[in-house]
Amino acid sequence: TLKAFGLLDENADTSQVSFSDIGSVASYAKDDILLLAANGYINGSDGKINPTGTATRAETAQMLTNYFSK
């Protein structure tokens, strides 16, 4: 998982992260998605994470910018 790489603060408050479609995220990925959001790496769109969608070039660029800015 992402935690194994020391990229995320495991103590981040994921209780403040809310996506209306979080139930559609695979169970094995849910904790990592919440940690990514709690740490500001991903933001979702319109209150959704859209786990079955495709990231646009702009969305991918934003995720990389968020990662390299930390």
Polypeptide structure, described:
It is built from 2 helices and no strands. The longest helix has 12 residues. The two termini are 19 Å apart. With 70 residues, it is mostly helical.
Radius of gyration: 12 Å
Distance between the termini: 19 Å
Derived from helix and strand composition plus strand pairing, the structural class reads mainly alpha
Q: What's the helix-strand series?
A: HH
Number of helices: 2
Seen as an oligomer or otherwise, the chain set is: single chain
How helix-rich are the residues, as a percent range?
Answer: 25-40%
Classify the beta-strand content into a percent band.
under 5%
Number of strands: 0
Largest sheet: none
Shape: globular
Which spans of ≥5 residues are poorly predicted at pLDDT below 50?
A: none
Mean pLDDT: 86
Briefly, what is this?
By secondary structure, the protein is an all-alpha fold. It has helices at residues 27-38, 57-68.
Give me some keywords for this one.
70 residues; 2 helices; mainly alpha
Chart the SSEs and their pairings.
Blueprint: H1 27-38, H2 57-68
